[in-house]
Design brief:
Elements lengths: L1 E7 L5 H9 L8 E6 L5 E7 L13 E3 L3 E9 L2 H10 L10 H11 L3 H4 L2 E9 L4 E6 L8 E4 L4 E4 L16 H5 L18 E3 L4 E5 L7 E2 L14 H19 L6 E4 L4 H16 L8 E7 L8 H11 L4 E4 L2 H15 L8 H12 L4 E3 L4 H5 L3 H4 L11 H13 L9 H18 L12 H5 L2 H11 L2 H14 L4 E3 L5 H7 L4 H4 L7 H7 L5 H4 L11 H6 L3 H9 L1 H4 L6 H12 L6 H24 L3
């Protein structure tokens, strides 16, 4: 929602500090503020994206009394309930926003306030009496927080680019950036692509008094599991109740809200629930929600057909973001500078989608992120449920059928025996041996050991690999356009509920994410409820590399700069690219691998070399 920057015991000259803060202007186009403590020990900066209380009363940095000052990036969705509780304790409020609630909550409850927050945040509070900084990041790391040390003290920020000018020696983490197998694995660690910058861990806090950062966990999902209803119908009822309340809290906004709608189950469930609540509750009387759909015509990734079904069902009109590869290519250097990281695909479709949202006045979206990792939405994970049931039992048929139905490339319907044999032949080693190096878990964790193979896989996806990476990506895609993403599936109450349920509740019958389908089926179009194929929101990289991007890619890999790069193997990358652009049967995976091998070079050229010149 905003961008924050801070320095502790550094004494950075104001002009330089302000210049670094301005590098976060895309995160907060609505306001700018810098505060320096009387003793010059602490400097705090804030770029504001105004979502709740648009007045200057919620301007940051915000000081209460003469002791506590806060910079806060994020949103606390239950701030009204906390505010009422604090009023009963005698506190008075000057604003109608959530930042003041966060600071007063800290004054009243100290670090225990974190357990009371339902939201996403990265925050810093300076105590002028103790001369300490309190840092914290939300339970699941939705909001980013980086830190480093310069020659004098400690610095932190929402993005790496604003820290780089304040660091003396800088170096690239070559072991990390060269290894494409680590792309999905480093976001949940402290490692960054810059050796001298560290990532503050999710679900943690730290009190800094001498420049040293020693984060402590305040949240671990497995320590917060709950008792769940025994019957599946009751489980669905509880899911529906929790999901509706999660949407309700995230619909609190003083600006227009909307959805990045794909037509898949998760985004459809979110917008259908949002419209349902608007129609059913006086709390949102007169509100409306906008939907933006990424249109990629003549590609396998275009899902406008399904998105239109949802819009027609709800009686709303979709806004289309026509994804333009040529326009995207012109802006690619700026996009990669804003993105800061490496990934399997380009950011263009996603950035253009949130750009369209902003152009249509939609500054807050309720999107479906987190559902796949909580409820089992990835085809690669389905096979692990086989390890949780009897071999060749009746559940295996459902598992196999779901696996095949989710594979959008499997257009030819085969007889059941053939499909069964094909499924077993394709996955027998992984299923029977239960071996998957990407799904490792801590064997000393008793709660995790109690989980089945499928749920352990989801736990790892959610906390360690896929989701942390996607949360980071979508923070960048949206913040590049000054748009805030809220994620109803990521409500901590739903997260602990999901990991308290067994695999059968997520995979009941022969459909993935069955509890979502069965809980919300009466408010969603049947075509979406019954849809089992999964495409995902990505770049149509095969079509682009063969067509509008062909010259760009070829010119890049033939350049002298590329040949001299110390981050790629030019010969291998050229071969991989040629295999895509010259091969009529090139697959999406082959193009994805080629792009990810090219990305380290593009990252250095468009991000690192630009950042170190600031």
């Amino acid at each position: 929602m905003c961008g924050i920057l801070g320095a502790y015991r550094c004494n950075i000259e104001p002009e330089r500090f302000g210049k670094c803060l301005d590098l976060l202007s895309h995160r907060g186009p609505d306001g700018f503020g810098i505060w320096t403590s009387d003793d010059n020990i602490c400097q705090l900066g804030h770029r504001r994206l105004a979502i709740i209380d648009l007045s200057d009363r919620s301007k940051q940095p915000m000081t209460i009394g003469s002791r506590y000052t806060i910079v806060f990036n994020g949103e606390i969705y239950n701030y009204l309930e906390l505010k009422e509780e604090l009023k009963k304790k005698g506190y008075c409020f000057k604003s109608s926003g959530d930042a003041e609630v966060v600071l007063i909550s800290y004054i009243e409850w100290g670090k225990e306030c974190l357990q009371r927050f339902n939201g996403m945040w990265a925050l810093a509070i300076y105590d002028s009496l103790s001369k300490e900084i309190f840092l914290s990041r939300d339970r699941f790391g939705v909001k980013p927080l980086f830190y480093s040390y310069n020659e004098e003290g400690f610095i932190f920020s929402s993005e790496m680019k604003s820290l780089i000018p304040l660091i003396g020696k800088k170096s690239i983490n070559k072991n990390l950036i060269r290894n494409r197998l680590l792309i999905n694995k480093y976001e949940a660690t402290e490692q960054c692509l810059i050796n001298e910058i560290y990532r503050f861990p999710a679900g943690s806090y730290a009190i800094i008094s001498d420049g040293k950062v020693l984060p402590k966990k305040f949240w671990k999902t497995l320590d917060n599991l709950v008792e769940v209803p025994k019957s599946y119908n009751e489980q669905c009822e509880l899911f529906r109740e929790l999901f509706f309340d999660s949407c309700r809290l995230r619909m609190r906004s003083d600006v227009k809200i909307g959805t990045a709608l794909s037509g898949g189950l998760d985004s459809s469930a979110t917008i259908c629930s949002t419209v349902y609540l608007i129609n059913q509750s006086n709390e949102f009387k007169g509100a409306n929600v906008g939907s933006v759909v990424a249109r990629m015509e003549n590609t396998m990734l275009d899902e406008t057909y399904y998105a239109d079904i949802v819009a027609d069902y709800l009686g709303i009109k979709n806004i289309y973001a026509d994804i333009d590869p040529n326009e995207g290519l012109k802006k690619l250097p700026d996009m990669l500078f804003g993105f800061e990281e490496v990934y399997y695909t380009s950011p263009i479709p996603m950035v253009q989608t949130y750009e369209t949202l902003r152009e249509n006045g939609i500054l807050v979206t309720l999107d479906g992120h987190g559902a796949d990792e909580l409820w089992g939405g990835y085809i690669e994970d389905i096979m692990y449920s086989c390890l949780d049931t009897r071999i060749f039992g009746s559940d295996w048929k459902d598992i196999m059928t779901t696996y095949e139905d989710m594979d959008v490339l499997n257009a030819q319907k085969q007889n059941e025996v053939y499909k069964y044999i094909k499924f077993l032949a394709k996955n027998a080693v992984k299923i029977l041996l239960g071996v998957n190096n990407d799904k490792k878990y801590d064997p000393t964790d008793k709660n995790l050991k109690k989980m089945g193979h499928f749920d352990r896989t989801l736990y790892n996806d959610f906390h360690n690999t896929i989701l942390p990476t996607l949360l980071r990506n979508y923070d960048r895609y949206s913040m590049l356009n000054g748009v805030e993403i809220c994620m109803p599936f990521m409500d901590y109450r739903l997260v602990k509920y999901a990991f308290s349920l067994g695999w059968k509740s997520k995979f009941n019958g022969n459909a993935s994410k069955s509890i979502i389908r069965d809980s919300l089926g009466d408010i969603m179009p049947k075509e979406i409820i019954n849809r089992k194929s999964k495409i995902g929101f990505n770049t149509p990289i095969v079509e682009w590399m063969k067509g509008p991007w062909r010259d760009f890619v070829q010119d890049t890999i033939e350049s002298t700069e590329f040949c001299n790069s110390d981050l790629v193997n030019p010969r291998i990358v050229r071969r991989m690219v040629a295999n895509v652009i010259n091969n009529d049967s090139a697959t999406y995976k082959e193009a994805e691998r080629a792009w990810s091998k090219l990305m380290p070079f593009l990252w250095k050229k468009y991000f690192y070399e630009r950042a170190i010149k600031i």
